[in-house]
Amino acid sequence: MRTLLLLSVAIAHAATPLDEMAWITGHWHAKAMWGGTGDEIYSAPSGGSIIGLFRYVKDGKLNLTEILHYELENGTVVLRLKHFEPGLKGREEKNDSIEFRQTARKDGEFQMKAELKNMTITLVYRRVSKDRMDVVMIRDQAGKRSEDTTVYERVR
CA torsion, points 42, 46, 47, 50, in degrees to nearest 10? Predict the structure, then answer.
């Protein structure tokens, strides 16, 4: 009976793909990003989602903000994000967002991919250590590929 109870508890608390991404929880800072600095802040998985905020500052001024919403849909992680200019002016239309789907995951790494009308964007989140995360942005557009890696350190 005890074995059955323990098995039931283990099944009830089986890790989801979002739980496997929980290492991203917290505040991360990038000192060198496109000539400025970046901050990413992520909640712990809860309610089938992870919520994130991104801030990009250049020349001492806010340049861009993003709201990121990771959600589990049919066993796959979907990331929807919206961009905002200073003054909280949205880039995307009111009910639109950029949608990424998880294409790969392994211990300490996950990939999200968006198919846009004129390009494909892949984001690779890689846990290098407990306090370092690299985010690689790969853009494929008209046969040209570009890749940027941003190094984030955990803020304590």
Answer: 20
Alpha-carbon gap, residue 127 to 129, rounded angstroms? 6
Report the predicted TM-score, pTM, of the whole model to 2 decimal places. Answer: 0.85
Q: What is the pLDDT along the chain (156 residues), one digit of tens a residue?
A: 555 444 444 444 557 899 999 999 999 999 977 899 999 999 999 999 999 999 999 999 999 999 999 999 998 999 999 999 999 999 999 899 999 999 999 999 999 999 999 999 999 999 999 999 999 999 999 889 999 999 999 997
Strand 120-129 with 109-115, pairing:
antiparallel
Q: What is the DSSP string of 20-72?
A: HTGGG-EEEEEEEETTEEEEEEEPPPBTTEEEEEEEEEETTEEEEEEEEEEEE
Please name each of the domains of the chain with its CATH number.
15-154 (2.40.128.20)
Rounded to the nearest 5°, which phi and psi values hold at 131?
-115, 15
